[in-house]
Amino acid sequence: MRVELRQAGSDRLLERLDLEEIPHPGRWLVVGERSFLVLQRHHRYQLRSGRYELSSVALQVKAQQQPADARLWQGGWVIGDPSCRFNARSPLLRCAVLPEGPCERCAHFSVQGG
C-alpha cells in the first residue's frame, strides 16, 4: 500500500513508501535510521469504475525514538510499567509523577489493585 509520512502539526510531506502493514496510531515505525511515532492515520480514496477504492494512507507522525522501556500492553504500546497505578498507559507519556522515568526509580511506584 502506498503510504505518505507527514509531519504532525505542519502536514509537511516527509517521505513516500510502500508498506504491507500500515501501523495504527500509537505505534512506532522505523524507516532506515529514523524512528517515528504514528499519531494519526488518514485514508485516501479514489473513484474507479463507479466505486471508491482505498488508494493511499497518510500517516501523521512525530520523529521520536522508541523508549527502551516501551512495551506492548493490551494491543497497544505503553511507556514504563503499566501495572503501576500512576502509569498513563500511553505511548506518549509515562506518568505524571516521574515522566522521564524509569519506573523502578520512582518513590511512588504502586501496583494497581495491590
Q: How would you describe this structure to a colleague?
A:
- The protein is mainly β.
- The protein has two domains: 2-63, no CATH class; 67-114, no CATH class.
- Helices cover 0% and strands 46% of the residues.
- It is built from no helices and seven strands.
- The chain has strands at residues 2-7, 13-18, 28-31, 34-48, 51-63, 70-73, 76-79.
- The strands form two sheets. Strands 2-1-5-4-3 form a five-stranded mixed beta sheet, with no helix packed on it. A two-stranded antiparallel ribbon has the order 6-7.
- Strand 3 (28-31) and strand 4 (34-48) form a beta hairpin.
**Number of domain units:** 2
Question: What is the overall number of helices?
Answer: 0
> What fraction of the residues are assigned to beta strands by DSSP?
over 45%
Point out poorly predicted stretches. Answer: none
Compute the average pLDDT: 88
Major sheet characteristics = 5 strands, mixed
Task: List the topology elements.
Layout: E1 2-7, E2 13-18, E3 28-31, E4 34-48, E5 51-63, E6 70-73, E7 76-79
Parallel strand pairs: 1-5
Antiparallel strand pairs: 1-2, 3-4, 4-5, 6-7
